[in-house]
Design brief:
The chain is mainly beta. The chain has a single domain (26-124), classed as Immunoglobulin-like, CATH 2.60.40.1220. It has no helices and eleven strands. Residues 20-124 form the SbsA Ig-like domain. InterPro entries: Cu-Rt/internalin_Ig-like (IPR014755), SbsA_Ig (IPR032812). This is Ig-like domain-containing protein. It comes from Methanobacterium veterum.
Length: 127
Amino acid sequence: MAVDKAGNKSPVYTEKYTIDKTAPKVTLTTPKNGATGVSRTATITIKFSENIKSSVNWSKIYIKNMNTGQIVFIGKSIKGNTLSIKMTYKRYPSKWYQVYIPAKVVKDSAGNNLAAGYIFKFKTGKY
């Protein structure tokens, strides 16, 4: 409460705040973990529980060809709650790929980072 020079007291105000301490979580991947027959050119998407933006480990996202161990070249972007990953080159047919999303790769508007890394894999189709 405040009092001015004339002795007038201000009204008492009460405010309640909710502090967001909940980190974003992966809710869906396309393709799903363990999927087979996946398109060799389709964009890979990872949906989160809330809108996201890039964070400190953004450059550490990668996709690996599990048959050769080779890391493949990718481009990535965010729109709303979705992280999209597009490989620069067409994926090889009938090969397993692993997508690695490290902790702190994205954060929400309150600054809460993705707490734990997320890994999933899929196998491409023949064509």
